[in-house]
Amino acid sequence: MLALRLPEEIERRLAALAKRTGRSKSFYAREAILEHLDDLEAEYLSDQVLKRVEEGQEQTYTLDELERELGLAD
Q1: pLDDT of residue 74
Q2: Cα-Cα-Cα-Cα dihedral of 23, 8, 12, 31, to 10°?
Q3: High-pLDDT (> 90) share of the chain, %
Q4: pLDDT per residue over 30-57, tens digit each?
Q5: Which domain holds residue 12?
Q6: 70 partner at 20 to 30 Å CA-CA among 17, 33, 52, 60?
């Protein structure tokens, strides 16, 4: 269960869209979250990965190294 407050303008737009299409506001809120969740995770979690790389806790590979490891090198 999730409850959130939206700015009035967004609430009006969401309600109008729901009314015009016969879908619920929850449907569109859920769609918006699902559409952008990957981007949000990448944005906010990438800082944690970068910190681990900088601290030497996470290994990185060049494209050449990765291709060799996967047997894709020419």
Answers
A1: 77
A2: -30
A3: 85
A4: 999 999 999 999 888 998 999 999 999 9
A5: 8-69
A6: 52
Measure the CA–CA gap between 69 and 40, rounded to whole angstroms: 30
pTM of the predicted structure, to 2 decimals:
0.59
Residues with Cβ within 8 Å of residue 53, at least 6 apart in sequence? 60
- Structural domain contains residue 3: no
Asked, for residue 18, whether it belongs to a domain, the answer is: yes
39 phi and psi, to 5 degrees?
A: -65, -40
The rounded distance, in Å, linking the Cα atoms of 61 and 3 is 42
Q: How many domains does the chain have?
A: 1
Q: Is residue 56 part of a domain?
A: yes
- pLDDT given for residue 1 in this prediction: 86
Residue 2 belongs to some domain of the structure: no
